[in-house]
Automatic annotation (TrEMBL):
Intracellular or extracellular location(s): Cell outer membrane
Quaternary structure and partners: Homotrimer.
Protein name according to UniProt: Porin
Domain Porin residues, every copy: 9-298
Top-level division of the source organism's lineage: Bacteria
InterPro entries: Gram-neg_bact_OMP, Gram_neg_porin_domain, Porin_dom_sf
Signal peptide range in chain numbering: 1-22
Amino acid sequence: MNLVKTTMALTIAATFTAPVMASDEINFYGKANVGLQYSDEGGESQTEVKSNASRLGVTGDLKVNDSLSVVYKAEVQIEMADDSDDTDNIKGRNQYIGLKGNFGTVLLGRNDTMLKQSQGKIDLFSDYEGDIKNLWKGENRMGESVSYVSPKFGDFSAGVTYVAEGDDDQGGEAGISTAVFYGDSGLKKSNWFASVALDSEVDGEDAMRFNVATKLGAFKLGFIAHSQEVVATGEETTGFMFSAAYKLNKDFTLKGQVQTAEEDFGDKAEKTAFTAGVDYALAKNAKLYAFYTAFDLDEDVTGDEDQSYLSTGIEYKF
């Protein structure tokens, strides 16, 4: 069944790519990322082959007139390393359609919230074990959403996501996610990026983030301050994250980040995640990588046992 679903997904993707020969407004893309990983969770260890958010997608931009376009995106996650027949190997990612013009961009469908988008590329280990979502809430991709992103005013822009109460994760309440952005998240057009984001009743949580990143020569540095509160119980968590990447030469990049989470309810718990890694560029869109992640989960208070992961793998983007 998984083979059939994979074949169907590839067939659909190939169909989308057919017009590319005649138009550059449709773009087919993907990422294959698979690693060999040693995992130790509470003293129980195993070796596994993991697919790290490998994906296929298509984007399009249909020009209606000089000031209006129809835009869309359809992206799916492909599980490239699971040998279980009981597991779906195709999962939905961002999938939406909307309008883009001088007024900004309006998108309807499944999409990352503004708070999730606000961190840009500060999380250097997104989609790996060290992903910030493992200690913090707020990395939400909501199904029944409407998003608006304003045009740029100088280096500033703003966005809002409305999550309808019909979304299964909303518990019958609508949610709002907002953000203000400054600069370029990839640090390619500017040396600074900053944003502030707020969630109100999104997936049962209120949350706030302040994000800043900068480029200093061969270094890229990032910082996030985060807070969250469970709406139903008032349970609060706050934390910080620091990340740094250093381009050693044209082939090697060294990376590291530290993330904290302090739970201020019941017995206070302090959790920490540390990740260090290295990338080796094989080509412009292909690399080898290795990383080590360790979680200190304050076992005496939380009852969660510490975890560590060591992985090496390969990634190819197309």
